[in-house]
Every structure is written in structure tokens, then in C-alpha cells.
Known about the structure:
Elements (H helix, E strand, L loop, with lengths): L1 E7 L6 H14 L3 E6 L2 H7 L8 H12 L5 E3 L12 H8 L5 E7 L13 H7 L2 E4 L6 H7 L1 H4 L5 E4 L10 H9 L10 H14 L1
Parallel strand pairs: 1-2, 1-4, 2-3, 4-5, 5-6
Amino acid sequence: MKALFFGGAFNPPSLAHIEMAYEAMKAVGYDRVVFVPSKSRYIQEDEKKKLLFEEEERFHLLSLVASTRPWMEVSRIELDQKEQPRTYSTMKALAPKYESLKLLLGSDKLGELETVWRHIDDIGKEFGFVCMTRNHDNVEKIFAENEYLKKRRSYFQVISPLEKYQDISSTLIREKIKRKESLKGLVPEEIREEVEKKEYSRV
């Protein structure tokens, strides 16, 4: 079985997370996407993001979505660690389960690879990257204008998902939660009522 590794906060899981991951999986001819939610402390302290969903809530929501999608797998491997592991370490731990494993990420993360991420060359050489276009990015221009990325272009396969998912993000969803607006079309229907109910009562 060939799988894409998709790590992140999923705070909350958006329809873009799910549908774009599925499109990327099909585009590269893989069988599964493994969603790997990050630890809460990492999201708050390292990424400096406001946390609306705790670890078990994010795992629960992803699991609900996966229950109707056989191609989705949700892993607790990072949540169950004492400290947030590096992506490379997590991929090394998961790799024996799969015939092939690649790292799935959005183009909005490309700018972080040189300064925030570690083991980029190890991931690129041992696994490889599948990059989804986000926010209408000109991905080839990003590679061309960044010497660090340009030298590593061969590690990346670039996928352009459907236009309608380009601008959907967890940040947008959290803003709508605060304004008590409907999340229809922004999160999977399996979790929409639960997300709206929980978060509207907390904000």
C-alpha cells in the first residue's frame, strides 16, 4: 500500500484538507492518506496559533470523517508522544507499514522549509514531497526565486487541486466560528453540526 503522510493542526479539519488530500492521492496514484494531527502545545507555543480544539477533539473529528472514507487513516503517533516529534522521525516510524510513503504539504508551507523545518534533505531523498497549490500560489515561481528550494526542486511533485478549495482554511473557519456563521461547505458534513455546536458555545 502506498500512502501520503499529511501532518498538521487540523484545528479544525476543513473540507479543503479532506478533498485536496484525496485529489493529491489520486493524482500520484497512491492508495491512502495518513492524517497525523500535531500536539496542542506545539500548535500554541511553536506555531503561535490559537487552539480551539484540543488533541482528543481533533483526533475525534478526523476519525469521524475517516469513518466514511476508506482511503483515510488517522494516526495518534504524534499525539501519544511526550513532546512533538520532528516530521522526519514520525515518517521513519510509519514507513515500515507502507510500500511507499511521501510527505503531503501545501504550497503555503514552502517558505518555512529552510528556516523552520529540519531534515528536509533526508525527507526528500528517502520519501519525497507532494505539494498542493494553496491560495492560488504560483508554485514554480516560488521555486525559481528561492535558491534553497530551487536546489531541491527534484524532491517535489506539484499538484493543483480544484479551484473551489484554494481559499478554504482552518483560519477562515475559526473566524466564522467567532462570528457565529454557518460552516456549510467549509467542513465535512459529518462533523459540521458538532463543530458549530462546540465552538459557538465556547467563543
